[in-house]
User: Which sequence fits this backbone?
């Protein structure tokens, strides 16, 4: 059939009913969606109701201890421990990532070995190891190891070494996500190695680094609760000290949980803005 | 036609350059001379080594054998006795600031504004005061017709506009030599013209340039010398009228019959 015949056929039907009035578009009905939503909401309501109405939660006790001095001291320790571990962990991790990506085979091997070792070792094992290091080295540089490595120092040390292994991989992934042409362009323009790193590579790598780093930060916040095993008084351990005395286990666990939820939420908001900052210049950034 | 002799005013002087990637030999003894103020266009099929050759000229690729001089100085090496010792990075970077390089994929810094892309190298590599660099950059943007895009980010521009910014960025260092690596190959057809116009304008101002391209029309119009490369060697070199219309080698003829 030639296109000529087609045109004629179209012209022969001027009273096509489709053309008479503008037609309204009706989307497909989705009854399943409504049913699923209703079921989920009902289950949520039941759950919430049981939490609020169950007196065993002792919400009054939760209120009493929520801002008590010992809980706030624990919260403060959790916060600064998280901040210090994240800062030191990422500083060391960035160095390890740079080693891993360097042309020097010795540095590459050392970095690989570090990540392999510290990712393989459970953080709990590591904390206990550093806590008992005095058994291997009773003295370090003429100072008694027990005096040098108190529980808080051990907590910072163990968590940082653990964090760095993961941070190294996150940073390395971010750097690898930067197009090779960016580095070549910077080289062709005569930018120094330092300048290429700080001004060209790292800011672009941050776009891929921030989301997993945010994840890690929240993980670290909650992960610091493990230091209770070496009697460092973080948020969880402070709550535990109270319920060991009063046997109000559930309300005190709720106190700790609520604080973790609040801090995590604040961090999530912060992450949103950091991501927005590093997305500038990208299609999705504006 | 005799082999090109190297005049005293050679801006680029390449002598028997060899380069391999692993077991793949990409450059198999290339000789090439480009005089000051001359526009050389390198043509050739994909994989003929033309981009690699261009990249050796500012030491983005290291040569395995041979030597390259730009404006009299040996690129990437210094001679000591019968050896060529690789220069420290600082020296190589200094040499690169005198050679502008424009990439096929523009390689603008996406997280910096157009203005900051251009200002970055003069300020950090040449230690120019930022105020002067900004002034120069605005002048260059005006020249490539993008004066109103100074505060835009690269991704907000079309490909042709991005490539013009990349050219302005290369010019900001006031290079003695400009290298173009397939500057229009990544562009939509309707954007090729605006970039070629900027390059033609530079040619008319007497800038020494080496352009790797597939644009035969551009070669015919702008080139002082056309270089045809195949299989890691320069097959022939000469005036565009000679190489494009009366090629002496079968391989050149075959290539031209496919692209024309």
Assistant:
């Amino acid at each position: 059939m030639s296109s000529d015949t087609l045109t004629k056929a179209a012209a022969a039907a001027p009273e096509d009913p489709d053309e008479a009035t503008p037609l309204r578009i009706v989307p497909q009905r989705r009854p399943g969606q409504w049913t699923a939503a209703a079921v989920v909401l009902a289950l949520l309501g039941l759950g919430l109701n049981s939490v609020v109405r169950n007196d065993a939660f002792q919400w009054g006790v939760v209120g009493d201890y929520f801002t008590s001095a010992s809980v706030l001291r624990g919260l403060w320790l959790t916060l600064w421990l998280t901040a210090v571990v994240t800062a030191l962990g990422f500083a060391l991790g960035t160095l390890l990532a740079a080693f891993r990506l360097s042309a020097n085979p010795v540095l590459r091997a050392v970095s690989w070995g570090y990540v392999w070792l510290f990712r393989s070792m459970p953080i709990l094992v590591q904390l206990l190891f550093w806590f008992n290091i005095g058994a291997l080295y009773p003295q370090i540089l003429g100072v008694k190891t027990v005096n040098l490595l108190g529980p808080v120092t051990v907590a910072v040390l163990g968590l940082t070494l653990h964090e760095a292994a993961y941070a190294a991989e996150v940073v390395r992934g971010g750097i690898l996500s930067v197009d090779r042409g960016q580095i070549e362009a910077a080289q062709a323009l005569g930018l120094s190695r330092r300048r290429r790193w700080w001004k060209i590579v790292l800011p672009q790598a941050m776009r891929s680094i921030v989301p997993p780093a945010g994840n890690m930060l929240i993980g670290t916040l909650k992960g610091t609760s493990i230091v209770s095993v070496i009697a460092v008084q973080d948020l969880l351990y402070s709550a535990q000290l109270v319920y060991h005395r009063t046997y109000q286990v559930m309300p005190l666990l709720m106190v700790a949980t609520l604080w973790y939820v609040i801090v995590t939420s604040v961090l999530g908001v912060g992450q949103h803005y950091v991501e927005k900052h590093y997305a500038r210049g990208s299609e999705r950034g504006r | 036609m005799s082999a090109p002799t190297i005049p005293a005013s050679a801006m680029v002087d390449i002598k028997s350059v060899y380069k391999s990637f692993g077991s793949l030999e990409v450059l198999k003894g290339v000789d090439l001379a480009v005089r000051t103020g001359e526009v050389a266009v390198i043509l050739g099929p994909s994989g003929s080594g033309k981009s690699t050759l261009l990249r050796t000229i500012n030491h983005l690729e290291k040569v395995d054998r041979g030597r390259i001089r730009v404006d009299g100085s040996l690129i990437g090496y210094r001679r000591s006795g019968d050896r060529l010792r690789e220069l420290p990075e600082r020296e190589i970077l200094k040499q690169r600031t005198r050679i502008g390089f424009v990439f096929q994929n523009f390689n603008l810094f996406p997280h910096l504004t157009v203005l900051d892309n251009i200002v970055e190298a003069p300020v950090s590599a040449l230690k120019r005061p930022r105020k002067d660099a900004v002034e120069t950059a605005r002048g260059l943007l005006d020249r490539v017709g993008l004066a109103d895009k100074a505060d835009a980010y690269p991704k907000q521009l079309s490909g042709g506009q991005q490539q013009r910014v990349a050219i302005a960025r290369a010019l900001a260092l006031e290079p003695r030599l400009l290298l173009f690596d397939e500057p229009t190959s990544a562009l939509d057809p309707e954007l090729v013209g605006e970039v070629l116009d900027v390059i033609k304008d530079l040619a008319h101002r007497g800038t020494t340039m080496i352009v790797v391209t597939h644009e035969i029309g551009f070669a015919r119009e702008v080139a002082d010398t056309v270089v045809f490369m195949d299989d890691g060697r320069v097959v022939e070199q000469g005036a565009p009228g000679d190489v494009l219309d009366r090629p002496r080698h079968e391989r050149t003829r075959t290539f031209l019959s496919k692209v024309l």
